[in-house]
Amino acid sequence: MGLTVESPKGLWYDRFETNTIRSATAVQTSGGQNRRPKKRKNKNMCQSYEESYGVFASVYDLFMDQIDYDAWCGYVRRLLIDEGISRGLVAELGCGTGNLTERLAAAGYEMIGIDASEEMLLKAAEKRIRSGQEILYLQQDMREMELYGTVQAVVSVCDSMNYITDPQDMTQVFSLVNNYLDPGGVFIFDLNTLYKYETLLGERTIAENREEGSFIWENTYDPVTQLNEYALALFLPRADGLYEKHEEYHCQRGYSLSEIQELLAAGGLEFVAAYDAFTKDPPKADSERIYILAREKGKRKENV
Fold first, then answer.
1. Structural domains of the chain ordered from first start
2. pTM for this prediction
3. CA separation for the pair 52, 141 (Å, rounded)
C-alpha cells in the first residue's frame, strides 16, 4: 500500500518503496577517503529545511527517542486549553514525523501537519495508517503556507522555527500565520535560545553509537550572525553487513526575545507571553528553550 502526502500545489505523491534510503553524498565506510564534512558560515549557503531532513528522516525517531513527547504534548495542550481551545482545527508547522501531531489528534484536535520534507512526512503518514487518526499532512515550506481556511491555533515545536534563518522570512511566516488564524486565534511555538547556541552547543562535536546506526554531529556557532550550523554524518547498516555513510547539513538561527517581539508585530501578530519551556515562568538568562504565545490581530468575527 502506498503512502499519500499532499504537496502545496495539490499534487499527490504515492511512494511504495518507503524504506529506500537515497543520498547523493552517501559513500561506503569500507572504501575511499573518509573525509570530515566542511562547515559553512555563510548565511546564504545555509540549506533549506527540506534539504536537511533527507536520509536523517529515516532514523529521526531512533535518535530522538529521549524526547518525552507525551509531556511536550501535555504542555502545549495546557497552553491551548488556557486560551479556551480544547477542540477544533489546529495546524502544526514543522510537524516532522508527526509525533506531536498524532498526540494532539488523539486528544481531540482536528490536526493539519505541515512540513517541507517529503521524507519526514512519509514517516508521519506511516504513523497515521497505524493509528487511524484523520490527520491532513501538507508538504509545504512554512514561508509559503497555504491552507483551505482558518484554524483556531497554530503550533510549532522542536525548534522548527529556528530553521527560519532570515528575519524577513520569519516576518513572512508570522504574517501567514496571522492570516490563517481565526479571530483571536493563537500561535504557540518554541525556540532554542541564544544561550543554548552560545554556551551549550558552540564549537562542539557530539557522537552516538548504536547497533541500529551511529552519528557524528559537528557543531559551529557564529555569535555575529547568530547562525548555528552542524554537519551531520550518519552511518547506517546495510543488508550486506557494511555501514553506509550519509552527510547532511543543518542550519538554524538564534533570536533574542526582543527580536521575536518586533518580528511578531511586523507580521501582524500580537505578542502575549514568553515562558521558560514547560513552565509558565518568564524566560531566564540560562533558559535553553522558550515558548512564545502570540495572538491573531486584525480580524473581526463577522468577517470570517
1. 25-56+195-253 (2.20.25.110), 69-192+255-297 (3.40.50.150)
2. 0.82
3. 13
